[in-house]
Amino acid sequence: MLNSIESTAYLGLGSNLGDGKTTLQDGWQALGAIEGVVLDGLSSPYMTAPVDMTSQHWFTNAVGRLKVSLEPLQLLQAMFEVEASFGRTRDEKVFGYQDRSLDLDLLYFSEVKMDTPELVLPHPRIGERLFVLVPFAELEPDFKDFACGTSIKEMIQRLDDSFDSLSRKKQEIIHGSWNA
Predict the structure, then answer these.
(1) Entry pTM
(2) What count of Cα atoms within 13 Å lies in the side-chain half-sphere of residue 139?
(3) What CA–CA distance (Å, rounded) separates 177 from 117?
(4) Quick one: what percent of the chain has pLDDT higher than 70?
(5) What distance in Å separates the CA atoms of residue 33 and residue 20, rounded to the nearest whole number?
(6) All domains in the chain, ordered by first residue
């Protein structure tokens, strides 16, 4: 059922197979072609080393903002369909993260809190990933996580501090440009 009230959704976009920048731009446009979805802002692309997985392929990542008249699970289903149209497969028999042509993660959906087998909102690992936090801070510098009251900038600082204390491996991230 379509919701007449417009909601704001934030997505993480990633790709580590093929031409990541082109894939993210094309995936972003495919999202905008969905009925009930309006593209409202996209960060710069960032090149990032894989996190919590073994791969020889770096990722291209970005964060996007959408205005939607869909419910969260409807948007999630549409995101899965866009991923599949870009060749994304999900092998349930393989444990852990896998290389992927296009990965779309629903980070926030207005101020919805949700914990179902299909979807957890806000995304539970936002604060652990520079590849999400840094482009998010570019797109929304004053954003504050409504669930924990922490700003994106504070999350970045906490994560950086955890790298400095050697409790976590430093995450490599390089700012890019859509035009270069």
Answers:
(1) 0.89
(2) 25
(3) 36
(4) 86
(5) 20
(6) 7-175 (3.30.70.560)
| Helix, coil or strand: residue 63 | strand
Measured CA to CA, the distance from residue 177 to residue 46 in angstroms comes to 8
With H, G, I as helix, E, B as strand and everything else as coil, classify residue 135: helix
Name the region of 45 (left: φ>0; alpha: ψ -120 to 50; beta: rest): beta
pLDDT (tens digit, 9 = 90+) per residue, 158-168? 888 887 666 66
Tokens 């004053």, residue located: 142
SS (H, E, C) 69-87: CCCHHHHHHHHHHHHHHCC
106/87 Cα distance (integer angstroms): 19
Q: What is the pLDDT of residues 66-91, one digit of tens each?
A: 999 999 999 999 999 999 999 867 66
Per the model's pLDDT, the better-predicted residue between 171 and 130 turns out to be: 130
Query: Residues 105, 82: contact at Cβ < 8 Å?
Result: no
Question: Is the Cβ–Cβ distance between 153 and 141 less than 8 Å?
Answer: yes
Residue for token pair 């995450």: 171
